[in-house]
C-alpha cells in the first residue's frame, strides 16, 4: 500500500541541492532518508515543545526505518515530507512518512522512534501533551513551510 497526501498531519519542505545527486543524475537514496529525518525532526520538535523544557529533557532516537523508493527524483526542485504518528507505546512511537515532489510520490516509509531521557539516555514514557499532539487527526494539518508553495 502506498502513501497518499491526506494521511499526514505534519509537513516539511526541503530544497533539492545539486550535491544531493549521484553520478547518474538522480537524487541519491541516502539523501531521501535525510529528507525523512528532517520531517521526523520537525514533527518531534513541535510535539516536544508541548512540554515545559521538552526539547531539553528528551531525545528522540530512531530504532528502525523501512523505506520504499517509488520513483526517481532529480535536481532542481523541492520535496515535501509528510509525517504522521500511527501509534504510541510506552516510550516508543511508530511513524509513517512520505516524500512527494511535484505531486508525485517519491518514497514512503515506516519507522519506530524511542523517546529517551536526555540526561540518562534511558527510554522514558511519552508525556501526555506529546501524545495528544502526535495523535491529532490528519485533518488538522500543519502547513508546509515552503515560501514557494511547491
From TrEMBL:
One of its GO terms (molecular function) is fatty acyl-CoA hydrolase activity. The keyword Hydrolase applies. The keyword Hydrolase applies. Pfam families: 4HBT_2. InterPro entries: 4-hydroxybenzoyl-CoA_TE (IPR050563), HotDog_dom_sf (IPR029069). Keywords: Hydrolase. Belongs to the 4-hydroxybenzoyl-CoA thioesterase family. This is Acyl-CoA thioesterase. It comes from Allomesorhizobium camelthorni. The lineage of its organism: Bacteria, Pseudomonadati, Pseudomonadota, Alphaproteobacteria, Hyphomicrobiales.
